[in-house]
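Dear support,

I submitted the protein below through the web form. The confirmation email said the job was done, but the results page showed an empty box. After a refresh the structure appeared. I'm attaching both so you can tell me whether what I see now is the final result or a partial one.
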Amino acid sequence: MISEKITVLSPRGTAPPIQLAPMAPRLDALEGKTIYIVDVNFPRTHQFFEEMQRLLSNKYPGTTWILRTKIGTYFHNDPQLWDEIKEKGDGVIMGIGQLDTCAPSVTIFCSILEKLGVPTAPVVTDAFPELIWSFAYKKGMPKLRFTFVPHPFANRPFEVHRQYLEGRDPLSGKPVLEEIVEALTRPTTDEEKKTGTIERPARRWLEPDTPENLERLFLENGWTDCLPIVLPTEERVVRMLKGTSHRPDEVIGRMQPIPPHEAWEKSIANLGAKAVTGRAKTEHIPAAMQPSPPHEAWEYTVEHVAINAVMAGARPEHFPAILAIASTGVTSLFSSATSFARMVVANGPMRKEMSMNCGLGALGPFNQANAVIGRTWTLISKNLGGAKPGETYLGDIGNNCNYNNMCFAENEEVLPEGWSPFHVQKGFRVEESVISILSGWSLLNYAAYKPHPHHEIMKWQLTGFETSGAGTHHTPGINPGSQAALLLSPITANDLRNEGFESKEKLSRWLKKNTYMTLWNYWAAMPDDLESARAGIEPFASLLKLPPEAKSPRPLILQDAPIEIVVVGGGTDAFWMAGDFYCLASASVDMWR
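What the results page shows now:
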């Protein structure tokens, strides 16, 4: 039997137009010129640029080669250095683009210099070619002249870095140094000089076809989470829109494969006030030196969100919560090689209105609202936020938590006396319905009976986060540390109350005060302190006499980061989970009814 053709709406958001910018004119020769070599300050890669400077100086003695390290981390802009290069330099070699975050940063900084009239030669690793080419296209310089070196790159011995410089680009096959020089000297082509605007309009309707063919189309185009979907016919979308009073064409958000602007600045701030510039340190990094988040943001309407909610199997009563998530602009598919996870915590009357599960098996596959609200966020992140594997999503292993993003409700009814619901901790009233979004990587659990107070076990459990999540993401010398979240069974929460913790805040403060880095991680995180210790300077020198697993003087949890605490579960065991999560955003659900 041949199925009748039907018409469905497109789940895709609106990509912004691309503004093409011409690349800078190239140099006729290197003789007599000044070329800057800029290290964007990715940890433990500087020897590569020192060796590059040595090799190029020997090969081109008539050229002045100036090696500089950009201010701050690879996230930070450095307009003062760009102005200096424009005034005193003739060209720039910049790297290293070694990850999904710093490779786009290298592209951004090189495009800034190209627009200033300075020819550039960006150097990146061969791990993310699709990301790099796509990103350069979206930034308006699709022909930016990249040189690729092998991946992985950071923490490689000096001999390996020298082999990379003396070897060939693994993609083009050209000698690396020759390709870098050619990037600065080969005349620009007509394609590289192009200007203008590339519009990328979104279609509202897809071509009519059979349900079977449309399901295959959605799957093959990457518009699903690879599970069966409900096709978004007009009738179904109209029914979903009845769950809100907002107009279908109302623009409610913009999303990109990184946190929104506020969360981006928070993540930068978590790196600390001090930034490494070579061996010197600057105490403050002006806001002007913080670039806008690298990936483009897609725009979407209430109707766009409704289409994806239909696909996920949501019902109209779930829609206000889904709109609240979409309004934050936070993606569930963060562009990072380290395979982020996300968590959705619901608070307030919505928990019962939407029949969400906050009790037995709340994080399991037993509740429709928990499942479809969390699942819709993944579909939104793919279809409205532009998440695409190999291009804007680079999670090495990936994370199975992304399927429904650990969506659940807090069990407010069983909170111990004095313990506030999670949304109240974030500044909302008890009677408000709120969705909170947390970001992290993984969860550890405790389910045993030891003769120790819960908080003492938690302290040692959290120490494990120095090798997980944010604990591994510090830039040496720049406020290293981690973050943490606890999901507590009702039994555990009441036990902790009996242990003397009259509030979540008191437990958070105690754990932060009593959880420290171990020395082996402390020395890696604080190389200046290690240098002082080896020079015999106290109090650091005495620490070298202690075993690596001994407690360091540095707290593990970031100074300004609370330990997030949520009570959830059916109360069948003194169980809890600890994760390297922190709250990115909280949003009102009531405003989307």
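Response: this is the final, complete result; the empty box was a page-load delay. Residues 18-196 form a domain with the Rossmann fold fold (CATH 3.40.50.10350).
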